[in-house]
Amino acid sequence: MSLQRLRLILSDFHLGNGRHRDDGTINPLEDFSCDQEFVELLTYYDREKSEADLELVLNGDFFNMIQLEPSEQELGILTERSAVEKMKAILAGHPEIISILRSFNASDKRRIVFVMGNHDPQLIWTAVQGLLREAIEGELVFVDDTYVVDGVHIEHGHQIENIFRMEKERYFLTKGYPEPVLNLPWGVFFVKDLLYRLKRRRPYVDKVRPYGKFWRWCFFNDFFFGVFAAILYIGFIFKTRFSRLPLKRAGAFHGFKAIFNLSASPTLTEDAALILQGEDCKLVVLGHTHIPIHIRLAGGEYINPGTWNDVTYLDLQNLGHRRKLYYVLVELKEEGPNGKLYEWHGRQLPFSEARL
What we know:
The chain is an alpha/beta fold. The chain contains ten helices and 16 strands. A hairpin with a 2-residue loop joins strand 11 (293-297) and strand 12 (300-304). The longest helix is centred in the middle third of the chain and has 18 residues, at 223-240. It is globular.
């Protein structure tokens, strides 16, 4: 009997510094509150598939390393020093998740793959990888772009968008800087410096799909905030045009084009179809959009597990506020990969902390 080979893929957890600050107060910038459900998921598969070769792929934005608390702002996000301090804060804020990852990865039949996303580009730093290796132990693999194996193409998806695309040939900048810095794209600074400023006023602002309908909703229901956000956005575009960072400067005017792409939520379906046509693969798994999808395309299938964060949908097909714990399970067979999109329900708990 051949060894069963499985691949478990999740995306876009956006782990921050934890649900509560050191003084016990609520951290309004923390997006993730499903620590216990994730523990249950990994525990289930680790036990039920104890004899299987099981690989866990965390497909980008598992960490939210560009979302800074006020005390972290001065150090920023560009250097290895800042990345190490941010990762330490995230590890301290989610001890149960780090504990289950360590327990899961203790077997030689397990491995964990971290794929870099636009919210955790600092995973590319050696010192950050070292922190995770020390905290989790076992076999860890770090992927900066695409992870293609066994007929499955896995990538986060931010490289498809101009405002988030990084230059693989020039991840680091050294000339004119006292220490190496990350060559981050405009979109990262849009999230860090503008979106989170708006999020402090409206915590749900980054959790609404599609964005175009949300801003039209603001016109009738939250007019002054909408005007405030629009003025900040346009000003931010012009301000970043004069940045020292080449990708930040070059991507500034892509921000204007992005305005006209807000009418619909991107699913990256067309991009997945191009990948299937251009590569020798049967299954494409992307993240980034926070929109779950499983669709058959010419040459194979495309699956996106969405996010474990709260999302408010304004389109009629998905209307309402919800959080779905989706994940992809791929069984590797001789005839090729068999991927399915599942929803984790977990145990029925008598109570949980309210999240408004």
